[in-house]
Amino acid sequence: MSLLSLTDLTVRRGTRTALDGVSLTVGVGECVGLIGPNGAGKTTLMRAALGLLPATGTSTLAALPLAERARIAAWMPQTREIAWPVSVETAIALGRLPHLPRGARPGALDRAAIDAAIVRMELEDYRTRTATRLSGGEQARVLIARALAQDTPLFMADEPIAGLDPAHQIATMKVFADLAREGRSVIVSLHDLGLAARHCTRLVMLQAGRLVADGPPAEVLTRENVERVFGVTAYYETTPQGPVFQPMEVVR
Amino acid sequence: MRPSRLISLTVALAIAGAAALAQPPRRVVSVNLCTDQLALLLAAPGQLVSVSRLAHDPDSSALHRRARAIPTNGSGAEEVYLLNPDLVLAGTYTADATVRMLRDLGIPVERFAPARSLEDIPARLAQMGRALGREDEAARQIAAFRAELAALSDPPARRPRAALYYVNSYTLGDRSLAGAILNAAGFANVASETGLTHGGTLPLEQLVLLAPEVIVKGRDYPGQARAEDPLTHPALRALERTRVVGTLTDRDWICGTPLVLNAIRRLRDLRLSMEAGR
Amino acid sequence: MRLAATLVALCAALFVLSLVTGYASVPAGQALKALIIGDGTPLSVVMREIRLPRALLAAMIGASLGLSGAALQGYLRNPLAEPGLIGISGAAALGAVLAIQTGLTLHFALALPLAALGMAVLGVLLILALAGPRGGSITLILAGIAISALASALTSLVLNLSPNPFAAADIVFWMMGSLADRSFAHVWLALPFMALGWVMLARLGRGLDALTLGEDAAQAMGVHLPRLRLALVIGTACAVGAATAVAGAIGFVGLVVPHLLRPLVGARPSALLWASALGGAAMVLATDIAVRVALPDRDLKLGVLMALVGAPLFLHLIYKTRKELP
């Protein structure tokens, strides 16, 4: 069963084609890493898939009614915005909105989801702190926890680990991998190809709005692909501790 | 110019002015609504050559029909000077700059204070009579005014309490022409109960609590303004024992001329009809 | 809930205090008795026809302005958004003045709130178009200045062209607002539109909460943004338009009240909506009492006192938010 299926998804911005005929199906248990250089169309792909951008082609997610979509897919945008000085717990609890009927207060199930998200993102000590006074990385973790609290079968995040310290980058990628193992689907865009190679079950490589490679990390992060798409040489090895990927030199 | 020459010029002008006044003026220009009215009442035919613009306004000018025959002016010094008058009639509230400039140009200006009581009316008539050289006519009209006023001022058995109520919640007290009209017609002005003698703001609340038997509203102006809202406030209608008298035309009330007798007569008729209705 | 109880109690106390405050000094007990019994005496007329509608309007207008301020701020995610400051009240006043001066209101009383509402809609749409989805402070304030200036210039022009000699003096009323000598006619004229506005704005809480995390996140949480925007525009225009139509433009309520109450509701936009409605009612009631106590024999305009409190706070907010200004 797949939660997200894109067919020939195309986004035009003026005369430029930001996303060019991408077809893609994400199945249960997959942790998909979306990679590509700046401007390749990663954000556009995810937003169009969610129906947040006008696009041609089809997306099973975008076709859903808003309320239903919100119970199926959680989305953490790249712009990390917390407009008001709410507490960390309040910000995370916003993730339960799609599950609450109008005017209802959070029930036991909601509390459990919020607590689980807080534990997952190691934010127990932050609960009552004011979210807007946290550092950028801490805010990012709060926003990931917010999306986790939405407790959806599909989890989508746009560069969630940018700006996090190494320990939290690894911990967060492990959370995503765990989500996939639990039987959910994850789509996450990122620039750290090393973390992508280690924690994603599948990589989707974009270049100039086109899908250029799609498959297990070892098949996508080939020397030719990395050189052609990113313009770098890289070191890639499968070690006893898992795959190691390290970009080395700029070729262009 | 040397100071001595300036002085001699001023003296010469003053003598010329006095000489001109010895003869009745032949080209008189009025720049104030109330001097318009007084002059229209007293001037010899052809003597008054221009009246203020308001004199033609039927809402403001009690003598607007008579004024129609005479051209109007905008009350500016330049315009008035070009009319070549030998006397200008102005109010004490006419712009000082205008009056000073006209006098500097050698034109005599006679200023009239607004009337604040009925006694001011014969005084203004007499002043205008002197200014126009029409003392006899003035004396005749003063006598007629006094006689008619006396006839209207029979002491009432009971003075009903009344309020004058204008735009912006303004009221007038006993020491105003309107207050004098109200008194002469046999009413007691409630403004004096609040300590207002000349005039001032009477908040709607206070007016309602005073509960006068009659509220005489000022005239209705064209167009609309929020300042007029208190005049139509439902609280005034809710007062059971109060009669609100709408637009008693104001043109007879504005200036101290014998025409205020019309206003007194109308108010007196109202009082008599109230007595009869009891 | 404690906050709600406190605010309700505060509003109730101020409402009673407003009823016993007036130009004519009457013992409070006697005044309230005259209000309840209504025996046709002059005092009961004062209580029922002058003071009661005045207190009701103060509460209604305060609630409308507080609620609109909180909603606008929630939507634009900017604490400087306030119906008066960004020109919505000014636009509504222009609508009201046009309806009065064209004589439309003489034939059709509802023309007054409707015209104010119409111009308010125009004002909100202009602000939203100019300030963009995430109302940045600079654009918001500049757009507000422009709309206010245009609206007040046109209002002055219309009033100056009026044949009524007193119309020009009304400019102060329309710019500063006053509740002097309002009647139940004004209550009935404004209430239906305000109530509609309150309902529309009160229902925005959920969407505004979600918007805390930005438009994308809110949409992904199931918030229908175009619908929310429409409800915001119409709700604000109804509430502010009706308030301005009967009492002139009263500024700063929607700025001061949400700012004071935000920390008390944990900064949640949804909780701030009802809190600001109650707080706004309390503030306008208190101010309207103050204008009568401070200068009993003049019609001191509400907006004057409001600006004395609000403008320093506005300056403080600008100072505080200047870091985020580009």
Automatic annotation (TrEMBL), chain A:
- Record domain ABC transporter: where: 4-233
- Superkingdom, taxonomy of origin: Bacteria
Entry keywords, A to Z: ATP-binding, Nucleotide-binding, Translocase, Transport
Record-level Gene Ontology MF annotations: ATP binding; ATP hydrolysis activity
Asked if the keyword Nucleotide-binding belongs to this entry, the reply reads yes
Alphabetized InterPro entries for the sequence: AAA+_ATPase, ABC_transporter-like_ATP-bd, ABC_transporter-like_CS, P-loop_NTPase
Task: Offer one Pfam family short name for this entry.
Answer: ABC_tran
Q: Which PROSITE patterns does the protein's record reference?
A: ABC_TRANSPORTER_1 (PS00211), ABC_TRANSPORTER_2 (PS50893)
Decide whether keyword Transport is in the record: yes
Tell me the function of this protein.
Part of the ABC transporter complex HmuTUV involved in hemin import. Responsible for energy coupling to the transport system.
- Identify this protein by name: Iron complex transport system ATP-binding protein
UniProtKB/TrEMBL annotation, chain B:
Q: Its Gene Ontology biological processes? A: cellular response to iron ion
Domain (Fe/B12 periplasmic-binding) ranges:
27-278
Q: Does the keyword Metal-binding apply?
A: no
State the InterPro entries in the record. Answer: ABC_Transporter_SBP, ABC_transptr_periplasmic_BD
UniProt cross-references to PROSITE patterns, sorted A to Z: FE_B12_PBP (PS50983)
A Pfam family: Peripla_BP_2
Q: What is this protein called?
A: Iron complex transport system substrate-binding protein
User: Native species of this protein?
Assistant: Jhaorihella thermophila
Q: Highest lineage ranks of the organism?
A: Bacteria, Pseudomonadati, Pseudomonadota, Alphaproteobacteria, Rhodobacterales
Automatic annotation (TrEMBL), chain C:
GO CC terms, sorted: plasma membrane
Write out the annotated subcellular location. Cell membrane
Q: Which family does it belong to?
A: Belongs to the binding-protein-dependent transport system permease family. FecCD subfamily.
Q: Which Pfam families match?
A: FecCD (PF01032)
State the source organism's domain of life.
Bacteria
Q: What GO molecular function annotations does the UniProt record carry, in alphabetical order?
A: transmembrane transporter activity
Q: Which UniProt keywords apply?
A: Cell membrane, Membrane, Transmembrane, Transmembrane helix, Transport
Q: Transmembrane residues, as ranges?
A: 55-72, 84-104, 110-131, 138-163, 183-201, 230-253, 273-295, 302-319
Q: How does it sit in the membrane?
A: Multi-pass membrane protein
The molecule here is called Iron complex transport system permease protein
